[in-house]
Specification:
The complex is a heterodimer of chains A (311) and B (67). Chain A is mostly helical. Chain A contains 15 helices and no strands. Chain B starts with 7 loop residues before the first helix and ends in a 26-residue tail after the last helix. Classes of the chains: A mainly alpha (311), B mainly alpha (67). Chains A and B meet through α3 and α5 of A and α2 of B.
């Protein structure tokens, strides 16, 4: 018999597969917050240099996403939500993802240093290191607090944007960092309370599974309480103002009420209304971040006409 | 003998090759744009000679002349 059947796949990864390695949805949040950090800074940046800086921040974020997918390919394959990613589905080889992640990291950091300044480039390098090594390699599989500390990686972009414009770090950029840092845990745990995840199958310690859902509800409330002074405090800095403060008070009251509602509930109530409250609070948390950074942008625009800020 | 220019691989990787071409073109545009902006930000284009790795005596102030 002379029939030979080739079983090996002849699939060639296309540009879309490589682009998916960069986690485009995460990148959009990074671009938005990084852009706000750059635009609200008191120093004007040439539009083209600003564009290149945001491009570098986006590519750096994408590179850390590729490195994360390379490292986590084994656990991604065991979870429904991530099994279709380029590496576990076999569309991209792990080595390719590693190569792309390292090359884009180097490209983004070096170009940002050349286009702007070394502090911004160092912060971008540290962000990539934090996400790919501290979060992905050290924390994610080791502790249920992974999302708390790992959230710092997503909090750096406005600080980088600010450093691009000013060449420094200030109370404003630290508070923008703290806003995202403190917002990440309640945002993520609200999601974890209503999504049936299979993190347990993959061996990832998530708070809902290691400490239970009641403990997670308490965590949501405590972290939201800690978030409020950061968000309100930002309103009294040089980039805040009456408009930002009004938005912050409104959004924090809304988010805090949601966190209290979650804290008061139990599993029976959640099952009865199919996690209605948790889903609502998760949506509020998305509006929360966009509203705060959007309000900072509005304050910066008003300042151009001499009516923004506290002066 | 015919020269077969189009290999099957070229067809299969067409999208990738075009994509990479566009990325390289965008990279060139970014570097060129940055160069133009950085030079224009110098104010005086003669200052660009400071970045030349060749000694430029004409850029040294005249203080010492005649002493």
């Amino acid at each position: 018999m002379s029939d030979i059947s080739a079983s090996e796949s002849t699939y060639e990864a296309n540009m879309g597969d490589y682009f998916a390695l960069l986690k485009p949805r995460v990148m959009s949040l990074v671009v938005f917050t990084g852009l706000v950090g750059l635009l609200v800074a008191p120093v004007a940046v040439h539009p083209f240099i600003g564009f290149v800086a945001i491009l570098c921040i986006a590519v750096g974020a994408g590179a850390s996403g590729a490195l994360n997918m390379w490292w986590d390919a084994d656990i991604d394959a065991r979870m429904r939500r991530t099994a279709g990613r380029p590496i576990p589905s076999g569309r991209v080889a792990p080595g390719e993802a590693l190569g792309i992640g390292l090359a884009l990291s180097g490209f983004a950091v070096v170009l940002l240093a050349l286009a702007t300044n070394f502090l911004a480039a160092f912060l971008l390098l540290f962000t990539i290191f934090f996400y790919a090594v501290v979060y992905s390699m050290w924390l994610k599989r080791a502790t249920p607090q992974n999302i708390v500390i790992g959230g710092a990686a997503g909090a750096f972009p406005p600080m980088i944007g600010w450093a691009v414009a000013t060449g420094g770090v200030s109370i404003e950029s630290v508070l923008m960092f703290a806003l995202i840092f403190m917002w990440t845990p309640p945002h993520f745990w609200a999601l974890a309370l209503f999504v049936k995840s299979d993190y347990g199958n993959a061996g990832i310690p998530m708070l809902t599974e290691t400490h239970g859902r009641d403990s997670t509800r308490r965590h949501v409330l405590v972290y939201t309480l800690l978030l409020v002074p950061v968000a309100i405090g930002l309103g009294f800095t040089s980039i805040g103002g009456p408009f930002y403060l009004a938005i912050a008070v409104w959004m924090n009251a809304w988010f805090l009420k949601g966190a209290f509602d979650i804290w008061r509930r139990d599993d029976a109530a959640c099952e009865a209304d199919k996690h209605k409250v948790e889903i609502k609070v998760f949506k509020v948390s998305l509006y929360y971040l966009f509203a705060h950074f959007g309000a900072l942008l509005v304050e910066a625009a008003l300042r151009l006409y001499g009516i923004g800020g506290w002066s | 003998m015919t020269l077969r220019v189009e290999h099957e691989l070229h067809t299969r990787r067409k999208g990738r090759n075009y994509g990479l071409g566009l990325i390289l073109a965008a990279f060139i545009a970014v570097i060129f744009g940055l160069t133009v902006v950085k030079v224009l930000e110098l104010g005086n284009a003669n200052q660009f000679e400071r970045f030349d790795h060749v000694a430029r005596p004409q850029l040294i102030p005249d203080e010492g002349v005649g002493e």
